Amino acid sequence: MKRAQVIGILVASVAGIAAFGLMKGMVSQKQETKTREVVVDSTEVLVARKDIGLGEIVAEQDFTWQKWPKDGVRPGMITAARSSQMHELAGSIARSPLIAGEPITVQKLIKAGQGGVVAAILPTGMRAVSTRIEPRTAVGGLILPNDHVDVILIRSIRSRTGKEDYVADTLFRNVRVLAIGQQIETANGKKSADSASSTTTATLELTPRQAELMALANSMGEITLSLRSVADLNSEGQNQTGNALNREETNSVSVLRYGAKSRAYGVN
């Protein structure tokens, strides 16, 4: 082997050993970890100690105090500065479900004697109206509270030939179901129709005008509820009123005296 080749091999070997030692030192070198303590200005807010269901009567032991960043406190939250309010809220009724750790606000609770649960969960300006249902007119009893439905009226009319016919008209579209029978919330948050299949009434959330039309429709024929898909809830505005009973000629009764029309009575 030539002398130049030997020298080249030795140089390469030395360079490889040096590179290996350098890499090993870099890997084994401990990285310095810098820890910086950040002090967050916090306060204590009142939260739910456990899950609280809709309509449940709460007690003091259902609440607890939890540290909360001061800049995260929103209007309505109850802070330690108003600690006496925990005692004042005892005996209130939950207007909506609360999960453990959720901040308590006065808007989420209603004091006993200020109205029932259904009155508490009704939005401002809306009315609760019940209608008779059967499994065959309510999707086999599969409709549950907080579902959205279309309300259909099936009624009989007499044609000019004297023959009795039946017509179906959609009264309202996309209205919320407040309760099925006495059930205002699904059991443990699970969808279950076992208890709803034998109920005979559905309570709907309607506008005052729709409440009048619903009362009229209940006396005119049979009410059927058509269940809407969750995907359709935002496709059109809620509480849309159809034209079936919203016209003067179908929403009034003409009184005839001696063959002459004297007056029309309606719900307008």
Give an overview of the whole structure:
With 268 residues, the chain is an alpha+beta fold. The chain has helices at 3-28, 84-89, 117-121, 208-218; strands at residues 42-48, 63-69, 93-94, 109-110, 127-132, 148-158, 164-180, 201-206, 222-227, 240-241, 252-257, 260-266. The protein has two domains: 42-121, Alpha-Beta Complex (Type Iii Antifreeze Protein Isoform Hplc 12); 127-253, no CATH class. It contains four helices and twelve strands; from the N terminus they run H-E-E-H-E-E-H-E-E-E-E-H-E-E-E-E. The strands form four sheets. Strands 5, 6, 7, 8, 9 and 10 form a six-stranded antiparallel β-sheet that branches. The chain has a two-stranded antiparallel sheet with strand order 1-2. Strand 11 (252-257) and strand 12 form a beta hairpin.
In short:
With 268 residues, this protein is α+β, with helices and mostly antiparallel strands.
Could you list some keywords that capture this structure?
2 domains, 268 residues, two-stranded antiparallel ribbon, 4 helices, alpha+beta
Through-space gap between termini? 115 Å
pLDDT < 50 stretches: 247-268
Reading the helices and strands in chain order gives HEEHEEHEEEEHEEEE
Specify the overall morphology.
elongated
Number of domains: 2
Instruction: Give the proportion of residues in helices.
Output: 10-25%
Structural class by sheet pairing and helices: alpha+beta
Q: Tell me, rounded to a whole number, the average pLDDT.
A: 76
Q: How many individual helices? A: 4
* Rg of Cα set: 35 Å
Strand content: 25-35%
Number of strands: 12
Largest sheet: 6 strands, antiparallel
